[in-house]
Each structure stands twice: as C-alpha cells, then as structure tokens.
C-alpha cells in the first residue's frame, strides 16, 4: 500500500556546498541519498514530494561538516501482512511463481496455489486449471494476499497466497 | 513501533504511524509520480537512468489505476466512515459484490462498526457511479 508520510533525517553537508545554493544542494543530496532506499519500518521510499522544514545547521565537532535536520514528505510503499493487492507475474516455476507489485517482490508457493491448478513446463511455464479455463504465466495479473514479509538491508520480500476466496487471476472484461 | 508478528492488515493492525498517515490509491500515486518524473527529466535530462524503485512503482500504478476523479472518492470515504487504508484497498481493487468487498477488507466485518451488508452495497454502488461518470 502506498502512503504519503513525513519523515525526518539528519543531512550532513560539506562547507564547499554552502552559499547561495545551500538549500538546493541539501535537497539534491537528500533525494540522492533517500529515494529508492528501503527500511523495515516505512518500506520503500519511492519519491520525495516536498520539503516541510529544514532546521538550523549544527557544526559537527572535529569534522567541520554541518548537520541539518530535514523534515520531508514522501511517497512510500509498505506491504503489510494480511493485505490484498494486485501484482504482475514475473516468473513461473514448479515451486510456485514470483510476482511484482511496485518495488516489492512476492513469492507464491505452489502449496498456496489452488489444488486444481497444475504446473505446465515448456517455453512459457504456467499454472493451469484442469479445464484450461484459467492460466497463470509471465505477465499475468493476479490478485494475492500477503501472508508474510521479510526485510533485509535493501529490500522487502513477501510471501503470498492465492488460495483464498476472490484471489487469483484478474479477468477484467472492461479492459478489452 | 508495531512488531512484525503483531501486524495484520485484515484487522487494520498496521501501526499508529500508518493508521494516521495519508493512504494513497494507485491513481493518486500515478499523478504524484508523473509530476516527479517530469521534474527529474527537467533537472537532469533524458540521459540519467531513473532509480529502479521509482520506475517500477510508476509502471505499477499506471497499470493498476482505476479512478481518475479523486475528489468524489474522498467524499465517499467521509460518508461511510472507513479508515483510509480500507478505502484505498477498495478503490484499488474495485470489488463488485458485497461478499467480495468483505473478503478483501475483512476489517469491515468487525462488530460494532455499523457496516451491515446494505451499507457496503450502497458504498460499492456509489463507487460504481463515480467510475461510470468520470
């Protein structure tokens, strides 16, 4: 789920960046440092949308760098356990399939795919129902439920299921 | 801070920070990211590659946007007293029946919230009207 939140960060700036463009340099550095990163608490920071406040700078003892506390607004993507969302399938194999929802990768194990769907290998590996009416393959759009999340240093990884009611391949006649 | 084991979106346990935060539907994110994309292009030109997280998010929200008229959707939220998170999930997934809506937003079923089947049906109809006429 995408959220619009306010985060705070202490930015260190070398005195070479001071002068008329101090604020621009600070904001540019903030964007470079923060956009695209990920934390367990807030999820992925997708984009910074505005600066709320830049506090007074404090000179650090010993280095001469100045530390500015910056409050900024940003769009974050944070997946939650129990959340239901739509994703695009990126890879299918006999263990299950991988799907992507924005910056997050989700794995759905074959144990959490309905029993009436079987893995078919080949050029385009897929999961298909016995009557061939429903197929999950690369680029298919599916609705899944997140049942677990794991955070490491640079990304969040999720496990999902499509075994519950109203989950699975999205058929959208309106898009035809 | 909410511990990993305690969080559960189906019961709206997503931590105070996020319960109070502004929840964005894919359509709203698309607008914000497109704007930022234009800014980035202006600042550094076409040569600099976009960060992967940004590019994937932009592609995703453009693909899965359902509404273009955000103002009316917000009105629906106030009328039906939904949490931002619940409205965003319904807005993103566009359930067609009351049964489907209650399956994808289980927190609607919590007792004492006054969301009986009729209220949910009215909510879905309102959203359908908005989608038809935007």
TrEMBL record, chain A:
Keywords: DNA-directed RNA polymerase, Nucleotidyltransferase, Nucleus, Transcription, Transferase. One of its GO terms (biological process) is positive regulation of translational initiation. Its main location: nucleus. It comes from the Eukaryota. GO terms for cellular component: P-body; RNA polymerase II, core complex. Residues 8-64 form the RNA polymerase Rpb7-like N-terminal domain. Pfam families: S1, SHS2_Rpb7-N. Belongs to the eukaryotic RPB7/RPC8 RNA polymerase subunit family. DNA-dependent RNA polymerase which catalyzes the transcription of DNA into RNA using the four ribonucleoside triphosphates as substrates. This is DNA-directed RNA polymerase subunit. It comes from Rosa chinensis (China rose).
């Amino acid at each position: 789920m995408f959220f619009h939140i306010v985060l705070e960060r202490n930015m260190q700036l070398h005195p070479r960046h001071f002068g008329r463009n101090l604020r621009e340099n600070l904001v540019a550095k903030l964007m470079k440092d923060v956009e695209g990163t990920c934390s367990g608490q807030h999820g992925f920071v997708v984009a910074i949308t505005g600066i709320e406040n830049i506090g007074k700078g404090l000179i650090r003892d010993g280095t001469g760098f100045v530390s500015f506390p910056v409050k900024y607004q940003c769009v974050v993507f944070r997946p939650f356990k129990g959340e239901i969302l739509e994703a695009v399938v990126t890879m299918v194999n006999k263990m299950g399939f991988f799907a992507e929802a924005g910056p997050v990768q989700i794995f759905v194990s074959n144990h959490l795919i309905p029993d009436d769907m079987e893995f078919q290998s080949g050029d385009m590996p897929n999961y298909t129902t016995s009557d061939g009416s429903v197929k999950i393959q690369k680029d298919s759009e599916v609705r899944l439920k997140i049942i677990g999340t794991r955070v490491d240093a640079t990304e969040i990884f999720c496990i999902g299921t499509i075994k519950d009611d109203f989950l699975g391949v999205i058929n959208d006649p309106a898009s035809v | 801070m909410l511990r990993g084991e305690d969080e559960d979106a189906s019961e709206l346990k997503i931590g105070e920070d996020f319960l109070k935060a502004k929840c964005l539907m894919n359509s709203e994110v698309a607008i914000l990211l497109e704007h930022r994309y234009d800014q980035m292009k202006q600042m550094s030109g076409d040569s600099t590659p976009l960060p992967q997280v940004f590019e994937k998010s932009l592609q995703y929200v453009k693909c899965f946007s359902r509404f273009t008229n955000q103002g009316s959707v917000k009105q629906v939220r106030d009328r039906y007293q939904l949490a931002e998170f619940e409205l965003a999930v319904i807005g993103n997934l566009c359930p067609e029946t009351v049964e489907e809506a209650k399956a994808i937003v289980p927190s609607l079923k919590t007792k004492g919230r006054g969301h009986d089947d009729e209220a949910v049906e009215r909510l879905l109809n309102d959203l359908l009207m908005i989608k038809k006429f935007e």
